Amino acid sequence: MSETIKTDCVIIGAGPVGLFAVFELGILGLESHVVDNLDKIGGQCAELYPDKPIYDIPALPECTGLSLIENLQKQIKPFNTPFHLNERINEISSDNDIWTLKTSRDKVFETPNIFIAGGVGSFEPRKPPIDNVLKYENKGIKYSISDKNFYRDKKVVIFGGGDSALDWTVELSKIASHISLVHRRDEFKAANHTVNQMRDLVKAGKVNLVTKSQISNVQGSDRVEKVIIKDNDGNEKIIECDEILIFYGLKMELGPINDWGLNLHEKQIDVNTEDFETSLPGIFAIGDISYYPGKLKLILSGFHEAALAAQKAFTRAKPDETLTFRYTTSSSDIQKKLGVK
Amino acid sequence: MAKIKYIEFNGNEHEIEVSNGLTLMEGAIKNKIPGIDADCGGACACATCHVYVDNKWIEKLSPKDDSEEDMLDFAFEVKSNSRLSCQITVSDELDGLIVNMPEKQF
Predict the structure, then answer these.
(1) A251 vs B46, B72, B79: nearest CB
(2) Are residues A254 and A234 in contact, defined by beta-carbon separation less than 8 angstroms?
(3) Is residue B41 part of a domain?
(4) What percentage of chain A has pLDDT greater than the value 90?
(5) Which of B41, B74, B78 sits opposite A249 (nearest CB)?
(6) Which residue of chain B comes nearest to A217, CA vs CA?
């Protein structure tokens, strides 16, 4: 039996806007839980551009994606907010103004408020749009490794040139019976020392490296038996294999949110600009995922949206209480919540 | 200002004027040309604005930098004339440029 967690608000997305929503809800005395499909806090800032400089955060002339996230985590520390990482909300249903959410790990939340701060959606592995590649998923094709021993004594082909592809090539070369690494060019984006390790393994005959080639098709009966690769001149080559691992990074998909009955504007969710509520009462969309006339996909816009949505969330979470607007500079109540001494 | 021809994978052609300073990706998005997704909005972080540049034009474009080359690893069916359209800035010299869209943006 799964546990049911009751809370004032479930925030979907642990990016900058989701984190700041924790703060805005927190100073109003509302408790929240944050759910994110990634294995770490920070959303796109941490996943896509941790080291890229950002110049348009008010009063921060320059910061990086990662430092912005670290500072936001510091800012929300007083609220001890639980994070549910590697987890996705799959289903929602409502009863009497209370939403019930089910996660991919069978956790259940009950809450009057859902904040969707999902950026451009959840990160999913990039899958080559080839019919047979999709057909043989989990029948010899995987996009991540949960148990490396699964690959013991198997013939493995790895695609990609980044850290995941190279790390696993080096690691699996110790246990797989045969391992090939296929990449579209001679240069690798992965860390230099891993690339060097891989090249040493190639020299020692432990890894079969094929560059300037890309996946073209796969074949097999019940499971994958061979993969066909194509070089830059269009010549095809067959590699026999038991398992294929594809590490082409992550892409963003709206995912299950598509099926929740929200009014959508292409890949964004329609909201009103008074409180950023969607077409469903109690579900709010803030940050890049929300759409309204004039919308700018900026982190600072998301911060503003979080503040206004939190006000409305308060009235739903505590219908019998009156909300009085207060400043952090002068409210002893807020300062107490923040642990200011 | 340059006249750019975007050709969808199915052969549909879109010839539009794009202002100097915009990227090829922005020109496509502004004119709602299908086939370029640009999920990350031009940060060179997603490879969903992949195009094939007409071979006559390849040499006339500013060369790819490392981040574009790295990101192209994540595009589908990359060829020698593959570019990310968010990394190509339009100028008068690009008048007449032709780009083809791939079958899919992954």
Answers:
(1) B46
(2) no
(3) yes
(4) 87
(5) B74
(6) B77
Cβ pair A113, A9 in contact under 8 A? yes
Over residues A95-111, mean pLDDT = 95
Least confident piece of the model among A36-45, A108-117, A301-310: A36-45
- Tens-place pLDDT, residues A41-77: 999 888 878 888 999 999 999 999 999 999 999 999 9
Burial of B11 (C-beta count, 10 Å sphere; 0-12/13-18/19+)? exposed
**Within 10 A of A107 (CB to CB), how many other CB atoms are there?**
17
CB atoms within 10 A of CB A341: 5
Same domain for A159 and A235, yes or no, is: yes
User: Could B39 and A120 be called an inter-chain contact, meaning their C-beta atoms sit closer than 8 Å?
Assistant: yes
Q: What is the ipTM of this complex?
A: 0.85
Residues on chain B touching A161 (C-beta within 8 angstroms): 73
Q: What are the backbone dihedrals phi and psi of residue B102, each rounded to the nearest 5 degrees, phi first? A: -75, 170
Segments forming the whole domain that contains residue A18: 4-124+251-337
Q: Determine the distance in angstroms separating the CA of B66 from the nearest CA of chain A, rounded to an integer.
A: 9
What DSSP line would sit under A18-44, residue for residue? HHHHHHHHHHTT--EEEE-SSSSTTHH
Handedness of CA A102, A106, A111, A117 (dihedral sign): negative
The answer to whether residue A1 scores a pLDDT higher than 70 is no
Domain count, chain A: 2
DSSP code of residue A100: E
Q: What is the CATH number of the domain that holds B74?
A: 3.10.20.30
Q: Which of A225, A248, A271 is the last residue of a domain?
A: A248
Say if residue A277 is in the same domain as residue A293.
yes
User: pLDDT by residue (tens digit) across B46-75?
Assistant: 889 999 999 999 999 999 999 899 999 999
Mean pLDDT (chain A) is 94
Whether residue B73 and residue A160 make contact (CB cut-off 8 A), yes or no, is: yes
CB pairs under 8 A between A and B: 51
Q: How far is CA A208 from CA A80, A212, A227, A233, in A?
A: 49, 13, 14, 20
A176 and A317 inside one domain? no
